From TrEMBL:
<feature type="transmembrane region" description="Helical">
    <location>
        <begin position="167"/>
        <end position="186"/>
    </location>
</feature>
<protein>
    <submittedName>
        <fullName>Bile acid:sodium symporter</fullName>
    </submittedName>
</protein>
<keyword id="KW-1133">Transmembrane helix</keyword>
<keyword id="KW-0472">Membrane</keyword>
<keyword id="KW-0812">Transmembrane</keyword>
<dbReference type="InterPro" id="IPR038770">
    <property type="entry name" value="Na+/solute_symporter_sf"/>
</dbReference>
<feature type="transmembrane region" description="Helical">
    <location>
        <begin position="7"/>
        <end position="25"/>
    </location>
</feature>
<dbReference type="GO" id="GO:0005886">
    <property type="term" value="C:plasma membrane"/>
</dbReference>
<dbReference type="InterPro" id="IPR016833">
    <property type="entry name" value="Put_Na-Bile_cotransptr"/>
</dbReference>
<feature type="transmembrane region" description="Helical">
    <location>
        <begin position="31"/>
        <end position="49"/>
    </location>
</feature>
<feature type="transmembrane region" description="Helical">
    <location>
        <begin position="228"/>
        <end position="253"/>
    </location>
</feature>
<feature type="transmembrane region" description="Helical">
    <location>
        <begin position="70"/>
        <end position="87"/>
    </location>
</feature>
<feature type="transmembrane region" description="Helical">
    <location>
        <begin position="131"/>
        <end position="155"/>
    </location>
</feature>
<dbReference type="Pfam" id="PF13593">
    <property type="entry name" value="SBF_like"/>
</dbReference>
<feature type="transmembrane region" description="Helical">
    <location>
        <begin position="99"/>
        <end position="119"/>
    </location>
</feature>
Amino acid sequence: MARPRFLPDNFTLMLVATVVLASLLPVHGEGAIAFNLLTNFAIAALFFLHGAKLSREAILAGATHWRLHLLVFASTFAVFPLVGVAFKPVLSWLVTPELYLGVLFLCTLPATVQSAIAFTSIARGNVPAAVCSASASSLFGIFLTPVLVGLVVVHHDGNTGVSPFDSIGNIMLQLLVPFVAGQIARRAIGAWVERHRALLKIVDQGSILLVVYTAFSKAVNTGLWHQIPLLALGGLLVACAVILGIMLMFTTFASRWFGFSREDQITIVFCGSKKSLASGIPMAKVLFAGGPLGAIVLPLMLFHQMQLMVCAVLARRYANQQRAALANLGPVQGGKPAGHATAGSGNDAKAGAGR
C-alpha cells in the first residue's frame, strides 16, 4: 500500500510521538538523571560516528570554490542572525520570550549536512561543493554558534545563564572531541561505518529523540504547555515560515547577483537557507542546560520540518526545469550535459530528514 502524500516522513512522526509521550509521561527524579547520562553518551557516539564517516577527500573536492562557500557562510552565520534580531519588534508580539530565544538560537545554528546534499543532488546542483560547504558549516558551527549565542541571544536576554566562553569549552568537550576522535579512527573504522550507514542513522535519530524527550519532560514538569498560549504557537509557525522565505529569497537572488552558475545557485540555496536539527539539539542541551530547553528547541523542530517540505518541492521544481531545458536542447552527446550532477530519487530527501 502506497504511503499517503499528506503524511510526513517517519522521523517527523517519531518526533511528534516523542513530544506527546513527554507531555503525558514526563521522566523525573532518578529516571531523569539516567536519561540525561544516556543522552550524553548517545550524542558523543553520534559525533564520533560522524567524524569517522566524513571523507576528507570529499571536502577537498569542493574546497577550492571559495566564493560559493563564503556566500553560504555569510547566509548561515551572518544574515540568519541579523534576520532574527531584526524581527524582534514583530516576534515579541507573536511569541513568548522563551520562544523568541529559541528563534534566535535557531538563527545561530550551522547548516544541515545530509538533507542539503540530498536536495542539491535531486535538483541537479553542484554536489561536491554542497558536501564541502555543508560539512564545513557543521564543523565550524561548533565554534561559531556559542559565540553567536553569546552575541545575539545573551545580548537580548541576560537571564539565559549562558556564558559563551564556558559554552565553547563544553561544546568542544562533548561534541568536538568525539568528532576529532572519529576522524582519527576513520582509517581503522571508516569502511565499517560506510557499510553500516543504518547504524549511524539509528544513533543520529535516537540521540535527537532522547534529547527531545528529556528536554520536553523537564519543560512539562515546569509547566511548559501552561506557559505557551495557543496563539503563540500559531505566531511561531508564522515566524518560521517568514524567516525561511526570507532566506530562500536572499540565497536565490544573491547567488544570481554574484553571477554563479545554475548548479552553484542551487547549492547556495539549499546550503544557505537550512538549519541543522542534528547539531542544534545537542548544542542546545549544552548551551541552555539551566534554561527553558523545551521552549528553546521547539522553534528548531518546527523550522526543521518546514524547511524539508518546502525544499522538497523546490528541489523537484529545479529538476523539472532542468529536464525541460534539456528537452528543448535536444540530444546531447553522452546522454547528458558535461558536469551535470546525477539526480537522486524522491526518497533521498527523506534520508536526510532527521538531520
